[in-house]
């Protein structure tokens, strides 16, 4: 299939824009790859320290027989459901490495926090920057520099982007990402959301709400909605960094262990094979564009409009929201997974999963097929479904996926749910922002109403509980309201997710009011049905125009035209004095729950469209 002209044009533009940085990056990758092996290159004392804890046979293998040594970087902890399964992975990986005549060491661990635990609390202010901490921890883990390959064990929101950014600093190493899989289905996401809305109305209490939440989040594995964590897994498949089809196989199954062992065999095939493919060479402009297209085709998390800008930058590649927007104009929406539909990720997998999506996009010329992957068979290998193995240690078998197993969940690219992707760019006198339209009803793509401006999400929630927002909707003549929450960007407080606002705004929308959210903060990957212009750049704390807004200003959010504007006369607008982040709020943003330690990150954070990076 011929590559679509828009995909080709966007890729060429990215390649041209990135040329100097990418060339410098590849020179570094090649220089690192050309060195002698670590155990041959390092001093004797260095080597002795590196392998002192290995069994004697392994020391002999790696030093004398010069067997490949795999570094394992793990995000294991037993608090988070998605990462708890990793407890036993190192033993399995080491055992498989031994079977293959290699060795493996746990090079280090990285932190993994859960936005589901910290949502709506001050600890959420650490969430986005935890990605950069994870990247740094990955670099520290691999800095002992005695590894011939690497395996990355991580799955959730900031963890995979952080691991990937860190791994790209060691771009000379063949690297495979090893997922853990989603938890089995519990209470449906739709039912869970209904209980949350009832709780927001005060119609059910804490006991009923907690019961619903525990039925939804009930075991090991990722949450079952298509939020940031599961979007990560889709993108890893599209980038060819997984064993094909590994993303959504449940923890604890025989197939899960077989795929984990296959990751060892895969990375060793690169290390020993004819086709040496270190991760720095593999993650090129085409690979990044494939990830972007897969995100758009599945209505994935808006967080990746920040994270993948940072990932690309780590490989010397420059992308921006214009690139996403142009791709979104031609990449169709082929998946409906909650919050963009009723299905959860287990139903998505049963219907065909990532392999179905990638096949449809490849056949439509919307992905680069000529990319390097961790498998010699290339990206087409990722269009098949792993179906089982002969014992946990046996070889994995893959089969063709065929037609969609459920047309309400997956459709062909020729008959999509929407002819365009699930994300849109908004521009105007309020700055640049993005909106996830895949879950927003068509009649809510344009909202024009007076603004109510809040400095914190807590202030908005209190106004809702006091009935002020509904009263404003009823009295302003527009039967609606645009809620603006500013001072939520990277420099202000670390750019927390504002998912706790979703139930309140959903209640208002459910009552027929035309409401929208505008913020320089983030929304969860699980959010969607209320129109939300998020990641507004430049942020208010950096002098952005949200600081000019006043209560009562009419704001127009037009997802169809890609506009976000305050309908204030230009002469009046440019004469306004910008509000300042309240001193008390600035002070509280920097104290408590470890936020003091992140002051330098807040001060040095780049804009959201530049990846909100601190490096």
From TrEMBL:
Dihydroxy-acid/6-phosphogluconate dehydratase N-terminal domain location is 68-381
Q: Which UniProt keywords apply?
A: 4Fe-4S, Carbohydrate metabolism, Gluconate utilization, Iron, Iron-sulfur, Lyase, Metal-binding
Enzyme Commission (EC) number: 4.2.1.12
Under PANTHER family, the record lists: D-XYLONATE DEHYDRATASE, PHOSPHOGLUCONATE DEHYDRATASE
State how the cofactor is bound: Binds 1 [4Fe-4S] cluster.
The protein's required cofactor(s) are namely:
[4Fe-4S] cluster
Q: What is this protein called?
A: Phosphogluconate dehydratase
